[in-house]
Amino acid sequence: MRLPFLSVCFWAVVALSVNAQEGDSTDLSRYEVFKEGETIVSLDRLQTMEDEYKTLVAEAECKEALPMIVAFYEAANKTSNILRRGNEPFYDATRDDRESVGRNRDLLNTLIAAENASNNLIKQRNVAWVEEAKCLLQVGDNEAAIHRLYRALDYIGTDHDEQALWKEARDLLWKEVGFRTDQ
């Protein structure tokens, strides 16, 4: 009695998992990058957005800059993910397949350029996060600034390009609790 019951349960689980696999491959909801009403932002438009928010920050117009900073880093993050997604088959490839792609210099150079562009957008996003925190401090929203600094410090790298940003973010954070590094 017990064996037929277990057998039925086993086959039911197998049937459900096969059905789930079939359903998952056609379900596009997990690939939705944009919310309703959002659009793709080109690299040229991102540069304009960055220039605009940086101009306002330089003029100490933080209140006006804050929504522009948020719009920039959200778009930069999505654009970076789109660029990176184009390289996904290479990332998922076997070692032999990667070696095969490596022999096609034009393709490999294109993949490298896309990866570099994606990484640069991530660095620009990280800068925007720190700029947002600085503006939040300027307008007196210290708690929100600390949250933004925590997030930024989770993603800022320690490579040469980002060490100054890392120092700036940690110094801003530490200053909020009275810790000074110039002692």
TrEMBL record:
Keywords for the protein's UniProt record, in alphabetical order: Signal
Signal among keywords: yes
Signal peptide: 1-20
Lineage top rank: taxon: Bacteria
Name used for this protein in its record: Tetratricopeptide repeat-containing protein
Species per Swiss-Prot/TrEMBL record: Lentibacter algarum
